[in-house]
Design a protein that fits this description.
six-stranded mixed sheet, 11 helices, 21% strand
Length: 284
């Protein structure tokens, strides 16, 4: 299966050739496997938002670098940018920024309406995605959008993006501010979407969330890609602090116990694994 996104040696400077020039990307590369959940991580100012703008087609490569999204070369003269953006969905960190209609149902229906859906077909599309994200259509379709809780706003924002049936879904800090149950429900939803064939990219500063969700991780540092691989490979490195990253709690616990003399191997990356290893160590 081809990669959903391939970016190679991408560079970008805002306000280039001016006294206010600011380098955002210097040598950024990544691949996103199709139908999987990947994570993009890095400290603030690493260039994550700029890279997302390229993946979403809001920025186009003008000089250095190659960007291919869903098989489309973003530097091609015949690129249909409007069609590409229909295939890529973006859920922002603050969902209220992308909700604008008075009623929830109308907000979710906006995208499909732009695609020409009407009548029963539109209604079924809207109701279907509302059920997928856990918003009962009967209870929420006619709710005032800005009467929703933070978690409900996130669900409505995701529903509005899913209603256009994107092949690639990008979510920027989507679980920030959610309670533990809301986080768990959001994680379940993202896993279901990936199982259904949607390629998912999460941007998160929460390494516990990255470990729980992602099978593939890209680390940006000062505009450069400094790591790409599995969570296990990333969190077994000893230079995370240099990239502004803090290991997940279970990894930190594992390493503390190992430093104290408990024989624990690098394969342990979940609480269940840690519990089993401690039990085996105690029995030995």
């Amino acid at each position: 299966m081809p990669e959903a996104v391939c970016i190679s040696r991408l560079a970008h400077t805002y306000m280039a050739d001016s006294p206010l020039a600011q380098v955002a990307l210097q040598d950024a590369s990544l691949t996103l496997p199709s139908g999987k959940i990947s994570a993009l991580v890095g400290e603030n100012g690493a260039g994550k938002s700029t890279l997302l703008h390229f993946i979403n087609g809001l920025l186009l490569p003008r000089s250095l670098g190659v960007v291919q999204v869903l098989g489309q070369d973003l530097a091609a003269a015949d690129l249909d940018l409007g069609m590409l953006r229909q295939r890529v969905g973006l859920v922002m960190q603050y969902p209220q920024q992308q909700l604008f209609e008075r009623f929830v149902g109308d907000d979710i229906a906006y995208g499909p309406r732009q695609l020409g859906l009407t009548g029963d077909v539109l209604r079924e599309r809207v109701y279907g995605v509302m059920r997928v994200v856990g918003l009962d259509p009967e209870a929420f379709s006619n709710r005032h959008t800005f009467s929703l809780s933070g978690g409900e706003m996130r669900r409505a924002a995701i529903a509005g993006v899913l209603a256009t049936q994107p092949e690639l879904l990008i979510l920027d800090e989507v679980t920030t501010g959610l309670d533990p149950l809301g986080r768990q429900q959001m994680h379940t939803l993202l896993r279901q979407l990936a199982v259904g064939g949607t390629t998912v990219l999460i941007v998160s500063n929460d390494m516990d969330e990255v470990l729980a969700l992602a099978s593939h991780v890209v680390v940006l540092n000062r505009g450069r890609s400094v790591f790409e691989g599995s969570c296990q490979a990333l969190f077994n490195r000893d230079d995370l602090a240099a990239w502004g990253l803090v290991p997940p709690a279970v990894i930190a616990m594992r390493d503390t116990l190992r430093a104290a003399g408990t024989p624990l191997d690098d394969m342990i990356d979940s609480l269940d694994d840690l519990e089993e290893a401690l039990w085996q160590a105690w029995r030995a």
